[in-house]
Amino acid sequence: MIKTDLKYNSDHVNIVECHDISLFRNTNEVLFEASCCIPRNSLTFIVGENGTGKSSLAQTILGLLPVDDGSICLHSESNKKLILGYVPQSIDLPKHFQMTVSEYLKYSAEVQSKDIKDALAKVDFPLIHIESRITELSGGQLQKLLLAAELYRKPDVLFLDEPLANVDDASEKHIIDVILEIKNQGVTIAIITHDWQMVSSYADHVICLNKNFACTTSSSCVCKNSLSKVNIKNIQKVTPDPEHMHDGFCYIENI
Amino acid sequence: MEIIDMLSISFMQRAIIGCLLLAINFGLYGVFIIPRKMGFMADGISHASLLGIACGLFIGINPIIPAVLLAAFLGFLLASFADSPKVTSDGLIGIFLSGGMSGAIIIMTFMPGYRPDLFSYLFGNLLSIQNSDIYALAIFSIFTIIGFKKQWRALVISTIHIDLSRVINLPTTQSKYFLFISTSIGLILGVKLLGVILVSALLIIPVMIANQYATSFKSTLLITQFSGIFSALMGIILAYIFDLPPGPTIALLLVALFIFSILQTKLLK
What we know:
The structure holds 2 protein chains of 2 kinds. Chain A has helices at 54-61, 101-109, 116-122, 139-152, 169-184, 196-202, 222-229; strands spanning 4-8, 14-25, 28-39, 43-48, 69-76, 84-87, 157-161, 188-192, 205-209, 236-237, 249-253. By secondary structure, chain A is an alpha/beta fold. Chain A has 2 domains: 4-83 and 155-253, Rossmann fold; 101-150.
């Protein structure tokens, strides 16, 4: 099971800290002694190539996957458990489960009937579909619905897996504005993405997973190269604890 | 007149109350079992429970007791292996079915002579319902409804997406065990009325009918309950009037309703 250590320390700069976490699926190594942190009230991006364990890292922090080794610390501001939110890139809905958009909001986030329209409007969800079945929504509409529910739950940390992958250009701008707005309200946001333009424009902090090269020693670091492509001049690669740096895991902050 | 006469007979009163309770319970299980593609579970558990029934008959105790214990254990196993990457649920149900039936047949070979009581368990029998069966069903229904009240949100969200349910910190695992174990026990409590062979019809078909018309979760629940209760009551009445076994009568009525719903919704389109 996940080894989470809930600490009540509002002064702690990091809201999430992973120490040497290892994760295996069957015998395949997904993460090996990975250490990283998510600073409080930051917009953190989790980047890396396919198969480097981005979603697994997020799901491990969320408690959805058990860690095989290491520990995860969640630093709560008050004497209560952190509220974690998660919007996956896509979900396979059961085809034969009839549920409307408004019912979904009521069940998943206990949204009051009077607040349903506001919750949906916040993420630019077309209100004409308020009584549509969730199985009939497009990928983008479903993602907006999931985001609306998670925002209503007022999470302390919100994980978004490719939040712009299925949405159109107009909604993209809207969702970015919403993300920045809730960040300004004090929510810590961690986004898994391949969108380097987005990373270069909005990142406070980047966690880059790289299976093949040690970014500390190799010039072929995927993160570094990709960030270079979008003309970021001042990439500062930091190894907070060199003893805990391992091949295949790089850690970049202060972009 | 015949219906009024029927209502004054005590075994029919028991059968009607029993069917009503079963239809309500099964309607609640079905709306979660069917979207999880676990409908085959109803057949697997009820057929496997024949082993418990055969054991009960062999050692001379109420056969429902070992059957309920066996069903609860199989429901527990099903919940335990639900997320297993190596043991698929439908495969496990197939093992329960063939294992349970085989065991029952072997035990029956040691029981000489014609056993009419065994046929009652296979196809259901209106006359076999005792007051104790109704009390057991009523108490179980109260526990089921309390359980559903506590687990409702977790059941709904984990049916849609299990990860979301876990992130919200809903009792996902607890609700899974509750659903599978209580469904398994409920199926066995319905065996005396509906029979091992056909008890699954009342769990599966009402939801299938509801899916043809429903546009929301609320309407799915209402239509499932309505079609289950209507078919169970009508089936009991027809079984009494035409002296038919209740299990097949209710199942045929449900199949007819399902075909009607398919034809009607196709025509409406």
